Each structure stands twice: as C-alpha cells, then as structure tokens.
C-alpha cells in the first residue's frame, strides 16, 4: 500500500509484486500498480509540494509519531535492546551519529514474522530542537518485499540515494515532515511532527540525521 511519503514498500499482493522490479525501483506514479485514486492523490501531492512546499493530508496522516506514544499503546514500546534481539537482521548502528544527541525513548517491532523473529523496527528519539523523531527501518529483503517510489516525488538525496522529502499538513494545521529512502537491503523513513515548510531548520536537521545513518 502507499505510505505517507507516496512510496510502495513490501506490497503483499502477488500481482502487484509481479509488476514491480526486485529491490528498489523508481517509476512514474502513473506506472505504479495502484488504483487510480492513489495515482490522483500522488499527482495532487506533487503539485502541492511544488507550489507551496507541503501536501494536504488527513489528521490521521500527520500523527505518525505521537500515535505510537499514546498510553494505550505503551505495552508495545520496548527497550532498544529487547527490540533488536527480536529482529532477523541486526539494525543499523546509530551510536556514532548525531542520534546520540537525542534521548532514545524506546522501540517497536513490526513487519513480517520469520522463524520467531521480526523484520522491522521503529526507534523513537527525543531531541531538544525537534521533539520526538521516529526512525523506521524496514528489512524488506527478508520479508521478500520490494520498494517502489514515484519519481515525481524524488526531490532529495541521502548518501547518493534518491530520497523523498515531504511535508504533510492537515486542515487543523498539524504537520508531519518526513524523509524516505531505500537501499538494496532496507527501506528507511524519518518522521517528525513539525512543519518543515514553515521552518527550514526542520528540513535541514532531518536531512542531517538521515545522511548520518551508515550505508548498508
């Protein structure tokens, strides 16, 4: 399914997977194996990002970070060590990166369940300047998934890899700024509930964090 950045990752439908190249592919949204409704939504997002620097979004689409921190979901939050021990592939090491400037609140596991292990991890860091940042790491190779991104949304790069920088804003003014990119082994996303279209420092800081993540 389409993510909040407009990319497709780990699609479960066999027909859709057959229509996607293995690994990471970047194609026009018009050629993506998705319903016309989603193509129209992507077209609108592309136009809005170009015209005003942010895309319209539903309220639920800008609560990517804080929703995971709500009290009724507290039982799903693990220590990083506990979460990492339940993954098929060891997560990327962030010890010698700017992430050490933040407080690691905890982590959550998700994705595909393979022989008693999981494929995805989300880490939550609290920074003085950004607030809480969610770093999502998807081991799509183990889950036999594929990643496809709309070329019209590619507007940045992370360590030489094409990336999507996007700001989603709801009618209430709530915002979610994110950076999304993928390598031959993993799909990555960074989220923060701030408006990068209003504050250029949010964009620069988020890209700095993204580019500090070791290439795998």
Describe the protein in words.
The chain is of the alpha+beta class and 216 residues long. Helix content is 19%, strand content 33%. The strands form 2 sheets. Strands 3, 4, 5, 6, 8, 9, 10 and 11 form an 8-stranded mixed beta sheet that branches. Strands 1-7-2 form a 3-stranded mixed beta sheet, with no helix packed on it. Strand 8 and strand 9 form a beta hairpin. The longest helix has 17 residues. It is globular and about 45 Å long. The two termini are 25 Å apart.
Output the number of helix runs: 4
Secondary structural class: alpha+beta
Q: Main sheet, how many strands, which sense, barrel?
A: 8 strands, mixed
Q: How would you sum up the global shape?
A: globular
User: In total, how many beta strands?
Assistant: 11
The string of secondary-structure elements, in order, is: EHEHEHEEEEEEEEH
| Overall mean pLDDT | 91
Uncertain regions: pLDDT < 50 for 5+ in a row?
A: 10-19
* Quaternary structure state of the chains depicted: single chain
Keyword list:
alpha+beta; three-stranded mixed β-sheet; 11 strands; globular
How do the strands and helices of this protein lay out in sequence?
Elements: E1 8-9, H1 14-18, E2 24-27, H2 36-52, E3 55-56, H3 80-84, E4 103-114, E5 117-127, E6 131-138, E7 147-150, E8 154-158, E9 161-169, E10 175-182, E11 187-192, H4 200-212
Parallel strand pairs: 2-7, 3-9
Antiparallel strand pairs: 1-7, 4-5, 5-6, 6-11, 8-9, 9-10, 10-11
Describe the structure concisely.
With 216 residues, the protein is α+β, with helices and mostly antiparallel strands.
């Amino acid at each position: 399914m389409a993510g909040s950045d407009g990319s497709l990752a780990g699609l479960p439908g066999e027909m859709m997977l057959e229509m996607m190249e293995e690994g990471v592919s970047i194609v026009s949204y018009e050629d993506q194996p998705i319903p016309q409704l989603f193509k129209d939504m992507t077209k609108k997002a592309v136009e809005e990002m170009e015209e005003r620097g942010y895309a319209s979004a539903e309220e639920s689409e800008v609560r990517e970070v804080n929703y995971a921190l709500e009290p009724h979901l507290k039982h799903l939050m693990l220590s990083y060590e506990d979460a990492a021990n339940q993954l098929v592939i060891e997560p990327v090491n962030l010890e010698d990166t700017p992430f050490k400037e933040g407080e690691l609140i905890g982590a959550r596991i998700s994705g595909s369940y393979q022989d008693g292990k999981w494929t995805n991890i989300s880490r939550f860091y609290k920074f003085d300047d950004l607030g809480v940042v969610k770093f999502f790491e998807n081991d799509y190779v183990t889950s036999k998934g594929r990643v496809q991104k709309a070329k019209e949304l590619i507007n940045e790069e992370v360590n030489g890899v094409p990336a999507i920088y996007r700001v989603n804003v709801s009618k209430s003014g709530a915002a979610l700024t994110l950076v999304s990119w993928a390598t031959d082994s993993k799909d990555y996303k960074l989220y923060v509930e701030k408006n990068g279209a209003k504050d250029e420092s949010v964009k620069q800081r988020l890209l700095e964090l993204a580019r500090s993540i070791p290439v795998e």
